Amino acid sequence: MVKKVYGVGVGVGDKKLLTLKALEILKKVDKIFIPISKEGKKSIAYEIIKDYVDGKDIEELLFPMIKDKEELKKYWENALEKVLKEDGEVALITIGDPTLYSTFSYLWKLLNEKGIKVEVVNGISSIFASAAALNIPLVEGDEKLCILPQGKDLEKYVDEFDTIIVMKTKNLKEKLDKIKDKDNYIVGLVRRATFEDEKVAIGRLDELDFDEFNDYLSLAIIKRVKE
Amino acid sequence: MVKKVYGVGVGVGDKKLLTLKALEILKKVDKIFIPISKEGKKSIAYEIIKDYVDGKDIEELLFPMIKDKEELKKYWENALEKVLKEDGEVALITIGDPTLYSTFSYLWKLLNEKGIKVEVVNGISSIFASAAALNIPLVEGDEKLCILPQGKDLEKYVDEFDTIIVMKTKNLKEKLDKIKDKDNYIVGLVRRATFEDEKVAIGRLDELDFDEFNDYLSLAIIKRVKE
């Protein structure tokens, strides 16, 4: 039976944003599990670490991007089974940080239920890498921030929070279109922060072109313009 | 005049949570500025990196923890002056990530206004390190998260968000006491995540002992109990 499972955040596109600890763990574990969303499709997380883990025992785990929870559960159970049957210490890698909307969180819960030792190794999240790419802070002083996946309840909160992050959607334009008085907001759009094909735009909401920001790794940072 | 300023996030207490990039930048810059909150007081950020930067040119910048903005502005202007008069590339280090409630953000703005080249190097934030220490994800699936500094508007949002982080206060107990129906929430308390004197507690809000969580580097993660 597996002795310990590390949930390792490998950060965003820039390989140098890996932490010293993540690198140490990836080099010492007996096996690295990498998430893929479709058979034959490349794992983004693996692309980030592959130069560091030459010769390692690597195994793919299939986590398709489907919404049906019962259907998904089969894939988690299947992944769990593969992980449990290992002998030593293993790592499962995930982009960003393992605590924020991560593929790892479902498996994490199942491992905890089984009493398996789990250690999360934090990684750089796209929310921070995106703010850095835009050259703006997310929040300062006593400002409030919220993260609304798929822009859920955006109209309700857009005037109550200083900074709003909309992520986990391929359609930022449609989500942000619901905001009224578009002139009151400065919006930063970031696609694939720190990857080679990173793209950023910033400006008043009504002046932005969303065309190149329709990727699952795109996000929007919305700030109310203050007087 | 200074050529480039790096705002480097050095993460939390564990020195190994530094990124490869942060380490590379700290080794190559001509000078490292370190924030202190009081003359003669140790810089937490410097404690994290000092083993890696032996022999480097280090200079302290005083950023006192006061609320008067006019008074604070003098310290920022003074820091700016010191940074500007350097010749080459310099780094200013900050705990956590430079985009989230960071000491760096004020200087960042002034540097941008002066047209000085700034590059932010992301670091591991205490919000992620705390969730890892508690062995729980912050958010999964389509859950909404908010960060309320000093617990601002906590009563209003506590039932609207799946996860709420209260930080930047020395008095978590007083802030969380405002929540009604305390039995409906699981709360994780973390003091100084990943530092040697890290302390964690998790449980129903009405059962928690806040005694050891009254430090400025303590935070609370509040999750509504779901049926």
From TrEMBL, chains A, B:
Pathway: Cofactor biosynthesis; adenosylcobalamin biosynthesis. Residues 4-209 form the Tetrapyrrole methylase domain. NCBIfam families: cobI_cbiL. Gene3D superfamilies: Cobalt-precorrin-4 Transmethylase, Domain 1, Methyltransferase, Cobalt-precorrin-4 Transmethylase, Domain 2. Keywords: Cobalamin biosynthesis, Methyltransferase, S-adenosyl-L-methionine, Transferase. Belongs to the precorrin methyltransferase family. GO terms for molecular function: precorrin-2 C20-methyltransferase activity. It holds the Pfam family TP_methylase. One of its GO terms (biological process) is methylation. This is Precorrin-2 C20-methyltransferase.
